[in-house]
Amino acid sequence: MLDSLVTSKTRIKLLLKFFSHNNSGYLRSLAKEFDESTNSVRVELNRLTEAGLLTAGEEGKTKVYRANQSHPFFDEISKMVSKFLGLDTLVEQVVKRMGEVEKAYIIGDYAKGVDSGTVEMVLIGRNLDLDYLEFLKNKTFEKINRKVAVSIHESEPEGLMGIMIFGK
Fold it and tell me: By its UniProt entry, which CDD domains does this protein fall under (predicted)?
């Protein structure tokens, strides 16, 4: 979906990085992370900054980029990125039919804004339907071509770092 609207693969990677979670980055680290030339990343960073989608600020001698949360399209782009990653559908289905889900977190690479191909989730709850979870994992892979790794806990593990996508 997103790749048919946005033709630059580098721009897609940048949108995923900055709009899937409140990440920041600088030119050389982004080029290394994406395995792209600094020039191609620079061109796309400039385009997104000129469009107002990213902000650029100085941290020491380094220019750091972030998603512009005050841009009128920030929420819509974040939702598009989430749909592209398939997280909205996955979470909705998990919460509706899995059982007593109290909280759900995205952890790992996706929580950092990196599209690694594997979505890591932590579910907090009891009496969860593990057969249905396996079905959802397979369906998600078929639909968005990404693996889903899920760990289940009855209570929230100490020091859990990630994005809460369901719960309070």
Answer: HTH_ARSR
The candidate with the shortest Cα–Cα distance to 15, out of 91, 89, 92, 73, is: 73
- Find how far residue 87's CA is from the centre of its chain: 8
Tokens for 47, please give them.
Answer: 């385009």
First to last CA, the chain: 31
User: Distance between CA 158 and CA 122 in Å, rounded?
Assistant: 12
4: pLDDT strictly greater than 50? no
Task: Inform me whether the pLDDT recorded for 5 exceeds 60.
Answer: no
* Residue in 15, 5, 23, 165 with CA at minimum distance from that of residue 90: 165
Residue 132, pLDDT > 50, answer yes
Q: What is the DSSP string of 28-72?
A: HHHHHHHT--HHHHHHHHHHHHHTTSEEEEEETTEEEEEE-TTST
- What's the whole-model pTM score? 0.56
What does the alpha-carbon distance between residue 157 and residue 6 come to, in Å, rounded to a whole number?
Answer: 39
Specify which residues 118 forms β-bridges with. 147
Domains of the chain: 2-76 (1.10.10.10), 86-166 (3.30.460.10)
Query: Please, which pLDDT band fits residue 86 given cuts at 50, 70 and 90?
Result: low
